Amino acid sequence: MSEHGTDQQRLREILAATSCVMLDFDGPLCAVFADLGASTVAARALDAIRQAGYADVARRCETSDPLDLLESIAAEYPELVPDVDAVVSDAENEAVSNAASTPGVVELIERCHASGRSLCIVSNNAESAVRAYLAEYGLTRKVDAIAARRPDDAAHLKPDTRLLRRVAEATGSSPAACTLIGDSPSDIKAAHAFGAHAIGYANKPGKFVKLTNAGADTVAEKLELITSEL
Q1: From the UniProt record, which GO molecular function terms apply (predicted)?
Q2: Whole-prediction pTM value?
Q3: Which of 7, 64, 3, 56 is nearest to 226 (CA)?
Q4: Per-residue model confidence as pLDDT tens for the chain (230 residues)
Q5: Is 1 within a domain?
Q6: SS3 207
Q7: Which range marks the domain in which residue 108 is found?
Q8: What three-state secondary structure class fits 155?
Q9: CA 96 to chain centre
Q10: Domain stop point among 49, 66, 96
């Protein structure tokens, strides 16, 4: 065990069996809404719903999480998905222009790339925002595949396995050869439902326990602990 509680031996075993590393975007790669604020984005989307004449829907679906809102709309009011997705996507593209990289993520990507493993992004955030961020930081060529939200994915975000399947197919990887690094229980659930390993990234207080309880195969509080085993 490290001083952070991470089981390095378990990390080593998981990554030794991994040929495709799937990295979540918001959290492991950057903090998307650190400046703009997720609640601000959710408020914009709720305003768009009201302006479309669905004030009652906005009231029933009120939340401070824009992706939770998008999932709720996709499940119950699919006709509103294009409007809500457009607002959230615009905000994500705005937000990533100022989003700082997570400490250690560039080194993780480079080590993964150098080791011959596939490095892919699997994200509930908009594909356009993910691509814009990677281009801004010169990381596009070091990422083998991207599976992020498109308008028709709103009802199939993690913990659904659609995005993971998309990456696995693009890289020719079997589920057992894939490992998803994510910072939310939905990442852990998606990985296990797909048949992949799940490494939790506990970047905030309380997440170590939350991700462990969600069933993560192991949890790391710093990306460097993962990079050292690649």
Answers
A1: phosphoglycolate phosphatase activity
A2: 0.94
A3: 7
A4: 444 577 899 999 999 999 999 999 999 999 999 889 999 999 999 999 999 999 999 999 999 999 999 999 999 999 999 999 999 999 999 999 989 899 999 999 999 989 999 999 999 999 999 999 999 999 999 999 999 999 899 999 999 999 999 999 999 999 999 999 999 999 999 999 999 999 999 999 999 999 999 999 999 999 999 999 99
A5: no
A6: helix
A7: 8-31+99-227
A8: helix
A9: 14
A10: 96
The encoded tokens of residue 135 equal: 């281009």
- As given in the structure block, the two tokens for residue 198 are 């799940």
Q: What angle do CA 124, 125, 130 make, to 5 degrees?
A: 125
Picking from 218, 183, 178, the residue whose alpha carbon sits closest to that of residue 194 is 178
Q: Which DSSP string corresponds to 115-131? A: TT-EEEEEEEEEHHHHH
CA distance 122 to 4: 26
Rg (CA), the chain: 17
Q: Are 106 and 183 within one domain?
A: yes
d(CA 22, CA 37) in angstroms, rounded, equals 25
Is 27 among the domain residues?
yes
Q: Token digits for 165?
A: 């399947």
Please tell me the distance from the alpha carbon of residue 154 to that of residue 84, in angstroms, as a whole number.
10
Do the Cβ atoms of 126 and 158 come closer than 8 Å? no
Same domain for 65 and 153? no
Query: β-pairing, 20-23 with 118-126?
Result: parallel
